[in-house]
Amino acid sequence: MSRIRYSKYIPQPLDEIDLEDLLNQLKEFFLESGFYSQFNPFAPSDQTLENLYQALAKILAKNEQVPQDWRDELERFAEEFPDGELGEELQDLLDQLIQRLMDEDYITTPQKGWNQPSELTDGEDAKPVGNVQFELTDRGLDFLGYKTLKELMGSVGRSSFGRHDTYHLSTGVQSDSHSRPYEFGDTLNLDMSATLLNAVKREGLAMPLNLEYQDLMVYQTDYQSSCATVLMLDCSHSMILYGTDRFTPAKKVALALAHLIRSQFPGDSLHVVLFHDSAQEIPLSKLASVKVGPFHTNTCEGLRMARRLLLNQKKDMLQIIMITDGKPSAITLPNGRIYRNSLGLDPMILQETFREVANCKKAGILINTFMLARDHYLVDFVKKVSQICRGKAYFTTTVDLASYILMDFMTKKTRTVH
Per the domain annotation, does 146 fall within a domain? Predict the structure, then answer.
């Protein structure tokens, strides 16, 4: 017979820390785009456990649930990073906190035993493996998307969402609209009162009452469309220049939009395309670790890839949401080479870009451009794009970018489906 051994539970000082609240406070750290990287802003990722220790120390140093002497030590450690050191007891507690994040499936690391002493070091002097990379899990990304969406929509007075309503009527779930005669192909959602009334008008009050095809009446409902969206993110160098981080707000939009679609519009699809010297599609699971790079802006190639992705989607509506802060300064030549010119608006680059915009229009794809700069020549370029594809141009800031995109995504469908 198996035995179960019970031991006395000894509470730890950090056990009262709410993991969801902690994860929300770590949001800026998880989504950092290279703006605060002093030595190498184009490093592939700053998401190492060593940097996570520093981020946790900054947060816990301001948490009143932590004893004051520990808060002082955490603050010194964060300020002196990477040369600062923590006491053994506090180091163990931070290890336990990170392990809780892993146990709850918010973050993951490919290396097992990450907090164990190395075989090549003395156990007493060993430190946690600082260069171990970690990643946000799907659950962690979904949580950050939910929190971002709630914050963004709360700021504009919206707290609940519906599906994409249009002015069209179809048959399905009952609505307040009048019923109409049944037509072949309609959902057989009968208005029994109107159907029986038609039969009585035709035959009178007789039993049994014979129903004919022309007696059938069905309810009309608001037609709810499905939409395929490609979110195009400019990750050229200018997105973190001039004292402003523009790429992190764009990543927050992507996470919020992904959560909105997954929870409220399950029939919709969302793809993310980065455009720089060329263009590439990335999965949402990799979005948090993406950074800007020393790139030009190949808007044409981004639009071309977005068009190809959308043409594979069988949806009522196809749209591109493009977020950029600069002029198109590169194109892909027929031989595969990249032609670059960052000096002004190159006529050849503009011509190829406008040609791809026209191709999107022919394919029935709407392009909405969200410009994070207001130089006069950029304004003219964006207006021309909107004129060709009959889309919209928004000249926004990093503060109101997400609100504009989310509100536009939920409201404009009533004007584009026919």
Answer: no
